[in-house]
Amino acid sequence: MIKYVAYVRVSTIKQDLGLESQLNIINNYINKEDEILKIFTEKESGRDNNRIELGKAIEYTKNNNAILLIAKLDRLSRNVMFISTLMDSKVDFKACDIPTADNFTIHIFAALAEREVGIIRERTKNALSVIKTNIEKNGYHISKKGNMITSLGKNELKKEDWQKGQLAIKEKRLQNQNLKKAKAFANVLKGNGLNYVQITKLLNENGFKTSKGKDYMNTSTIRLFKE
Q: Where are the catalytic residues (predicted)?
């Protein structure tokens, strides 16, 4: 029997993955004979590393010789320094979405996530700058969909169109993140001497999907290294 201490985080701004969803992922991860000693719930923003409940969870995990368990790596933080601090605490922890990952692999995913946040922020900043410049110069900005924007803010668009646009952006962002994680994971496996057949098997076992949402085959794994 393995003893776990569950740590779940709910954003005070938005819930990308709610409390119930995280607990379901955790419960599906553990075996029937395993035990969850305690659940710590944190309400924090995505990049805030000062988390009281996490500190309590780490201490409780150490005192009970257990394993700290989270649903997804990004539930902990998108900050590499935070991940390093967690590992420096010497607490044994697992992420349900990367069950075979070691400390080196976790560093890779954390770095990729942090880089993605920076890219999204920079793209958003540049896009808003272009819109603002066009509005100041011409009095309006024409979007890629042909909508006229005369001021910044979602109220300028129809609510339905805005929601569809946000959903499409979110789906594309998640798809890109998944592919980057899959490629990083595959590179680590290849660096450890595994062949394409073995890498394909581990990609599928860890829940990775291709850009079309399908399981990996040897051909798609080879293609992953070329993308």
A: 11
Predicted local confidence at residue 187, as pLDDT: 87
Question: What's the token pair of residue 223?
Answer: 């293609």
Helices (H), the chain: 19-29, 52-63, 80-88, 103-138, 159-191, 196-205, 218-226
| Number of Cβ atoms within 10 Å of the Cβ of 198 | 14
Q: Look up 143 and say whether it is catalytic.
A: no
| Burial state string for 109-120 with b = 16 or more CB within 10 A and e = fewer than 16 | bbebbbebeeee
The contacts of residue 139 (CB under 8 Å, 6+ apart) are 150
Q: Indicate the fold that domain 3-103 takes in CATH.
A: Rossmann fold (3.40.50)
Instruction: Pick from 24-38, 146-160, 202-216 the range whose average pLDDT is largest.
Output: 24-38
This model's pTM is above 0.85: no
11, 21, 84, 143: the catalytic one is 11
